[in-house]
Design a protein that fits this description.
- By secondary structure, the chain is of the alpha/beta class.
- It has one domain: NAD(P)-binding Rossmann-like Domain (Rossmann fold), CATH 3.40.50.720.
- It contains 10 helices and 7 strands.
Length: 281
């Protein structure tokens, strides 16, 4: 399994499924030893088996990123198991299953849901870096990837918690890049567009027309898949990106670079040409 990450150790939060699952497989395929830190024990074990069957090295540890002790334990476990830490991918959070906690305006959101959202979207990333950086410093280098979103730049109505959290990720990434750059630790973020992972596949399976409508929003005329993001993360973690830090790479099929007036007209024309298109929500 020799590759760009031979001899390196990576921790991936939310590494069981979706973007995290694909990233775990990608880094392992290029030689990294991967710790999957996830709340879904069964899916994490399945991904470890997948990686092992392909000749890679991985293990899983139960991790709820809303619990600070779990984050510290995951970092420590990777170092205790393999002796070092080189890569931290901070991915854990699923809109699927958490919709009710992130929807709403400032008037509507419960304080408890705000606190939970900030814990998993923002505080967890601060804690991950807090515990990872000392180990990376001892190595003389490291790479931290924080998962942002197109929602970091463009806001959706009645999504205060998610939008505020993802916007904070961009600012925190820049700050960490400044703080840890002297230690040769690079910190970058990824901004995915609409990525059809396992959970979203279930949502779209009986609504191909709705998914096609979503795809038409993108200049590339398709939505993303987890491997699209995993490839970008692998690039940012590699020596090919050794002079990139503090950057948020939008991996969004061009969604955030199009003029909105033309975009709206295109979608209206699509809807007229495809009557009966059913959209979620």
């Amino acid at each position: 399994m020799a590759g760009r990450f031979e001899g390196q150790v990576a921790v991936i939060t939310g590494g069981a499924l979706g973007i995290g699952g694909a990233t775990a497989r990608r880094l392992a395929s290029e030689g990294a030893k991967v710790l999957i830190a996830d709340i879904n024990d069964d899916a994490a074990a399945t991904n470890v088996e997948h990686i092992s069957s392909d000749g890679g090295t991985a293990k899983a540890i139960h991790t709820d990123v809303a619990v600070p002790a779990d984050i510290e334990r995951a970092i420590s476990d990777a170092v205790e198991t393999w002796g070092r830490l080189d890569i931290l991918v901070q991915n854990a959070f699923s809109v699927v299953g958490g919709e009710s906690r992130i929807h709403g305006t400032a008037e509507q959101v419960d304080e408890a849901d705000w606190d939970w959202g900030m814990d998993v979207l923002v505080k967890a990333l601060y804690l991950g870096a807090k515990h990872a950086v000392p180990h990376m410093r001892r190595n003389g280098s490291g790479s931290i990837i924080n998962l942002a979103s197109v929602h970091s730049l463009l806001q959706e109505a009645e999504m205060l918690v998610y939008e505020a959290g993802k916007a904070a990720v961009v600012g925190m990434t820049r700050q960490m890049a400044n703080d840890f750059g002297p230690d040769n630790i690079r910190v970058n973020a990824i901004g995915p567009g609409h990525i059809v992972s396992e959970g979203l596949e279930e949502m779209w399976k009986d609504n191909a027309e709705g998914l096609a409508f979503f795809a038409n929003q993108y200049p590339l005329r398709r939505t993303g898949v987890p491997d699209d993001i995993a490839g970008a993360i692998a690039f940012l973690c590699s020596e090919d990106a050794s002079f990139i830090t503090g950057h948020t790479l939008m991996v969004d099929g061009g969604l955030t670079v199009q003029l909105q007036e033309k975009f709206g007209l295109r979608q209206a024309n699509y809807a007229r040409a495809n009557p009966g298109t059913e959209l979620p929500g």
